[in-house]
Specification:
Elements: E1 6-15, H1 22-32, H2 43-69, H3 76-88, E2 96-104, H4 109-118, E3 121-128, H5 135-150, E4 157-160, H6 168-183, E5 191-197, H7 201-205, H8 210-225, E6 230-234, H9 247-253, E7 261-265, H10 274-277, H11 279-290, E8 295-299, H12 306-319, H13 323-326
Parallel strand pairs: 1-2, 1-3, 3-4, 5-6, 5-7, 7-8
């Protein structure tokens, strides 16, 4: 490796439409729901459902949801991921370039992999920002990067960030963030719900470790906080049986069990997005209060805060060991 060669770090998250309007959401959903890692139904059977029903009805509803959380900087997920990359710029030396991409939508993974190579990066660390491994998140992000490499005559060397669901640095960052958020509330929660993104039960039965990773994260965080967490799974889609208990049903049931003050945390998300800001903070609140709850708080993700960035710097530095010395 010459003294002029660089190392690239590519932060990767799920993706987002370009705008909070039906056309942009339709394009985003068409890409997202055409991924065989996400929808494990034979395409000849799935395509008529996707194009004949879902893409005709869901974009308008989803666009309304996105509009509830859209900011001046655009999509919260894209804006926060960009902030994370900016916060890590220079953290590993002048020869390390930190960039970011989305699995679905823009900036595309293939585009940014090519850009890093063109900038002189002969080694690239792919960093899907999913603490818990799932084929529908971590694997498909890596798939898309590998597909971009397959089209290159001169490929860079590549490493991938492993899941970090039980890493002490991650658990400690979560603990610090949750405790700070709780300290800022004007009430003491009767219960804390840890809501993770759901997945079909069949996916777990086929061997995906995601459910076990989520449970282990919740167990370790519960121990670190010194209090029980109620684990639930959100974002159910379609008619298949999904992981349970469901977050919406859990929130609706808590007041009837005497828990009228609740805080919700989403440890499976590295950055706040529509699933946390609209589904949990808005609709989750409505569900809980309508069921008789009195106080509700959504606790933000690590995002580009001090604890989150320090945790990412620690994880990435470990995976860059040897490379950044060579650079």
């Amino acid at each position: 490796m010459t003294s002029r060669a660089k190392v690239g770090v590519l932060l990767i998250n799920l993706g987002t439409p370009d705008a909070a309007e039906a056309g942009a959401v339709r394009r985003y959903l068409a890409e997202f729901l055409s991924d065989p890692r996400v929808i494990e139904i034979p395409m000849p059977l799935w395509r008529p459902i996707l194009h004949g029903v879902i893409l005709r009805t869901r974009p308008r509803k989803s666009a309304h949801a996105y509009a509830q959380v859209w900011t001046e900087a655009g999509s919260p997920l894209a804006a926060i991921t960009a902030e994370q990359a900016a916060a890590l710029a220079g953290a590993f030396g002048e020869e390390v370039i930190v960039d970011w991409a989305m699995r679905y939508g823009r900036p595309a993974i293939a585009e940014r992999v090519k850009a890093l190579k063109a900038a002189g990066c002969e080694r690239i660390l792919l960093a899907p920002l999913y603490p818990q491994y799932c084929a529908a998140t971590t694997a498909t992000a890596n798939d898309r990067a590998f597909a971009a490499l397959a089209a290159m005559r001169w490929q860079p060397a590549v490493r991938t960030l492993p899941p970090y669901y039980d890493d002490p640095a991650y658990i400690d960052a979560l603990k610090t963030s949750v405790e700070a958020s709780l300290a800022g509330l004007d009430f003491v929660p009767d219960a804390i719900v840890a809501s993770f993104h759901g997945m079909p039960q069949r996916t777990r039965e086929l061997g995906d470790p995601y459910h076990d990773h989520c449970r282990e994260t919740a167990r370790l965080l519960s121990e670190a906080l010194g209090r029980e967490l109620i684990v639930a799974f959100q974002s159910r889609f379609g008619r298949a049986k999904w992981l349970e208990p469901a977050t919406d049903a859990t929130l609706a049931a808590l007041p009837g069990k005497g828990m009228r003050r609740v805080a919700v945390v989403a440890p499976g998300f590295a950055a706040d997005c529509i699933e946390t800001l609209e589904e949990l903070a808005i609709r989750g609140r409505e569900t809980f209060l309508a069921a008789g709850g009195t106080d509700f708080a959504y606790l933000p993700c690590l995002n580009a805060g001090r604890e989150g960035v320090a945790m990412l710097r620690h994880l990435l530095a470990r995976e860059l060991a040897g490379w950044i010395d060579a650079a």
